[in-house]
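May I ask you to comment on the folded chain given beneath this request?
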Amino acid sequence: MPTDTPQPHFVLVRPQMGENIGAAARAMWNFGLDRMQIVAPRDGWPNPNAVAMASGAGRLLDEAQLAEDLPEALADCTYVFATTARPRELTKPVFSPEGAMKKAAQLIAQGEKVAVLFGPERSGLENDDVARANAIITVPVNPEFASLNLAQCVLLVGYEWRRQTQTVAEETFELGKSEWATGQEIEALVRHYEERLTDAGYFFPPEKAPGMKTVFRNLWSRMTLTRADVQMLHGIMRQMVRWKEHGED
């Protein structure tokens, strides 16, 4: 059964190759989308090539709704987007994928049923298809090579849907098996280095030593260190001191 998550329906209009239908299903499931409709697929349905390409998203293909034509597929939809890279002589609002999915999220939250149309691989949607849509989605691609693969287009729109409906952190840190070092641990590390460098005569001449130590401490404050980092740096300094004490050059 499809998930209960409110979402737009992705409608593949007259898709040609089973492999592309399967790749589109995989792209949808990457972003938690599982409402697929297939309109008049060229090679019939079901298609074993689609299943092979879906790679873990076969459930979407099993649950996909098959329609003979576009009016049937859109019978219960209240707002429809059509994806196209070509200029159309039709008066309609034109959205970026981001803007379209923002509007889709608003409409779905209000209880409306939203569909996104994706055209055949070779030629895209026909004007008659686009005329049934309320708005157009256009990706800002290279105008000299504007054609997108079906799955690529599905992936782009699916990604923008995910961005509009999920909190996506712009940057995170993977700490692995360590934790951030505390101020006390970093202070001990700085003292360790200052003491050993003082012994080595690094802070010279004496009248400049306070300023050099301030700059040195400021260097450490700009670093983001984990406990594992601190332990490693302590170990490096201890080994360097042992190496020197053994008379190594």
